[in-house]
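In the design runs reported in the main text, the only information available to the sequence generator was the tokenized backbone. The following block is the verbatim input for one such run; it is reproduced so that readers can re-run the procedure and compare outputs position by position.
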């Protein structure tokens, strides 16, 4: 089963040179944003 936030119709898998790569894309709304934090030096 796939996680609910994965776009199941866009899942891809590739087996190349003994390595299996599975791509599970998430919709833009599920991607977390980053936040910059200022670091003060003393």
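Verbatim output:
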């Amino acid at each position: 089963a796939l996680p609910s936030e994965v776009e199941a119709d866009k899942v891809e898998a590739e087996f190349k040179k003994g390595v299996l790569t599975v791509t599970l894309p998430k919709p833009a709304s599920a991607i977390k944003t980053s936040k910059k934090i200022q670091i003060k030096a003393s």
